[in-house]
UniProtKB/TrEMBL annotation:
Pfam families: Methyltransf_25 (PF13649). Residues 46-145 form the Methyltransferase domain. This is Methyltransferase domain-containing protein. GO terms for molecular function: polyprenyldihydroxybenzoate methyltransferase activity. It comes from the Eukaryota. InterPro entries: Methyltransf_25 (IPR041698), SAM-dependent_MTases_sf (IPR029063).
Length: 264
């Protein structure tokens, strides 16, 4: 399977959608944090990118009320259908858009300078070119509007240190190069119990990386090159040992580097 094609992401989340709201993971907790950071007010216009089954989108609409506007966009039609049906049950008038959020600007009705807030929870890392996407999203904000997004920290998956390339400074850098001000950047608490890894089992962990679900597996695409796999495994074992403390243990968290930039 080719890594992170839109089709692969769509079918991965379409399959996950029916159980998404009852999965026991950090997403509901994170959704309530996004609501806190966004602090929606009556009359606001808000664009919730990669809205999934509407965990953030529905409460946003409740808060902005009938004079506000909320748009939820996602590539997964099954997720959107679930979100739409929940909204209809509550009589919430939300606009749903099935599209690639990287090119949301091309969707009719999504106008430059028209949103108070653009949010994208737990999806930036899935995009092919997050820098380009963030620049386009920034153009949709009104002056003073906020763009709120984040990427997992490297220690979420010590095994996936590659994620660090889009971590901390980079996520803020993306917002800055989209013309937003330096704003705020901070680390969230861990959304899951810390997981202790035994570096003596690094070789097994390396092999297990390739048995994970399709989307996470693509994060390690560089290592899948068959001619490099044994070499990669050696480096992986060595680096895990270097990272571990004297007790040979490493801890994984589920934390996010958050970035909130303001359009000036
Ligand atoms: C981890 S879920 C997060 C859903 C929601 N924001 C939440 O916090 O519950 C990631 C979502 O990103 C969507 N997604 C990933 N890449 C996308 C893209 N290029 N365009 C639109 N949606 C995308 C997926 O379909 C999925 O619904």
């Amino acid at each position: 399977m080719s890594p992170n094609t839109l089709e692969s992401i769509k079918s991965y989340y379409n399959a996950r959608a029916p159980g998404y709201d009852t999965e026991t993971n950090f997403h509901p907790h994170q959704a309530s944090d996004y609501l806190h950071w966004i602090s929606p007010k009556p009359g606001m216009h808000i664009l919730d990118l990669a809205c999934g089954t509407g965990a953030i989108t529905l409460p946003l609409k409740r808060a902005v009320g009938p004079t506000g506007r909320v748009v939820g966009a996602d590539i997964s039609d099954v997720s959107l259908e679930i979100a739409r049906s929940k909204a209809e049950d509550e009589g919430l008038d939300i606009e749903w858009v099935e599209c690639d959020i990287s090119t949301i600007y091309a969707v009719p009705g999504i106008e430059e300078g028209s949103f108070d807030v653009v949010s994208c929870a737990a999806a930036l890392v899935l995009l092919k070119d997050p820098g380009m996407a963030v620049r386009e999203w920034a153009r949709l904000l009104k002056p003073g509007g906020l763009l709120i997004t984040g990427v997992l920290t490297g220690d979420t998956m010590v095994r996936g240190i590659v994620l660090d390339r889009v971590a901390e400074e980079e996520v803020m850098g993306l917002l800055r190069s989209a013309g937003l001000d330096g704003g705020e950047s901070f680390l969230t608490e861990s959304y899951a119990e810390p997981k202790y890894l035994d570096v003596e089992k690094a070789g097994e962990m390396f092999d297990a990386l390739f048995e994970e679900a399709p989307v996470p597996r693509t994060w390690y695409a560089d290592l899948v090159v068959p001619s490099r796999r044994e070499k990669s495994k050696e480096i992986f074992e060595r680096e895990m040992k270097k990272l571990a403390g004297p007790d040979g243990k490493l801890v994984e968290y589920v934390r996010f580097h958050m970035a909130i930039g303001r359009k000036v």
